[in-house]
Model the fold of this input.
Amino acid sequence: MQLDHDQLHRLLALLGESDIQELKLEGDDFRLEVRRNLPSSAPVTLVQAPVASPGLAPQLSTGAPAPSAPSAPPPAAAAARSDLIEITAPMVGTFYRSPAPGEPSFVELGDRISAGQPICILEAMKLMNELEAEVSGELVEVLVENGTPVEFGQVLMRLKSV
Done:
């Protein structure tokens, strides 16, 4: 069984729309494990084990499960204030503040944000995942630079309740 990048992208998109929590798929030259934990406050999260590519040796396999969170919190998260609501990355990806290059940011400092409002994009494997606010508040901090890679659970923004 072969799995190319387009098939992988379609598979991950279908999994993102389903209720499946774990999937293991093995072929002649690859092993794919996808697990997601759906905390009540986070949207769909996908964690993927490495997939074999043509340049890698056959029978790529990972014996240990893929990490679901960084071992140490990012430095910005250590200085959290208890009166602020943290918006964290639900997946590993690249953080973008605007829907496309040259367009205005989804939100700016001082903006009032409503629950369900788009606030950024996290790109993972060439898929653009729009992140929506789960709570309302005023944006007081953006902790990540545009175009920067982020880790699962990393604090992206902080809101003040209004």
